[in-house]
Amino acid sequence: MSTEDQESKTEEASERKISQAKQKGDTWSSKEAGHLMAYLGLLVLCLLVIPLYGPPLVLSLADIFAGAPRVQLDTPEDLLEVMSDFSALIAGFVLPALGVLFVFALVSMLLSGPFLVSTARLKPKLSKFNPGAGLKRMFSVENLTEFTKNILRVTLLGAASFMALKTVIDSLLPGVILSPQGVIPLLGETSVKLLMTAALILIPFVAFDIFWKRFQWMKKQKMSKQDQKDEMKDTEGDPHIRAKRQELRRRALRRPHMQTVPEATLVITNPTHFAVALRYERGVDAAPVCIAKGTDLQALRIRDIALDHDVAVIESPPLARALYAGTEEDALIPEEHWAAVAELVGYVLDLRRRIHRKLPEGSHHVTS
After folding, report:
1. Sheet containing 312-315: which strands, arranged edge to edge?
2. Are 316 and 336 in the same domain?
3. Last residue of one domain, picked from the residues 220, 250, 281
């Protein structure tokens, strides 16, 4: 993708485009979450599973091997009984360990990004065999960021491992009195400290990686104004979307137009002489739909109803006059106003997501 193409993509991706990308198996994912969950899983094994199930397992195995010379294996049933007891003993330790690892693997999948099953990712792409495209990807911002992150992570984990091993080596140097029974607790304590340190180091890496991967993916999905127009035209042919749009139209026609104002996405005013209530539902409306409009007293009434029902009211005098004059009720707004209205709709949708941004020049958000 050229720089100019990327710069032209200034609009947030629609739900339809995001859905299509996911159908193709295109989504964001973070590998750092898997690394963190692996360390946490091992930490839980060292802190809980091994101390709880390890000693009984060792004592039972010791009893089995000590009594092995006295075991009679005269029939296949005798061998089956011994093997059953031995398998039950091993399972008592292995199953809790596998259960812990399974839980952390599941959490890792949830943190790593949306889980998708798509055959589209299995299809070969000739672009992957293009040396020029490969070099471009190698020196891209994403790969350079990934390289820097990996170097920093390996350096920090390596330093933590070195400090842990140095502690063990110092404890085992000649002259230090340490019984053989004390070696295992020392190694266990060191392992726990090392795993805890590694987990603490990885937490900020995971947070950054999830934010960065999702940010980059959403940036890649952005659309240009022409993309939005093309999508709006494409959705006209979808029978499901057309049926839902007709249902909304029938519902609006059954009520006075003032009663449809609470369903509006926003109201554009002039500020008191004109008011146009617009509805836009992604994936349903090809473009914003005028569901109510009025002048003077009717305009004030539309504005008051909108404010009472927490519908955004935007003062934009030239746009309000143009929409009132050129749009019929229960009809799409004219195409020449799509870009201007799209900016206001994007502002309102961002507000619902608690994202604050500036309105276009000449527009004002009415709050009371």
Report:
1. 331-332, 289-295, 274-279, 266-269, 312-315, 364-366
2. yes
3. 220
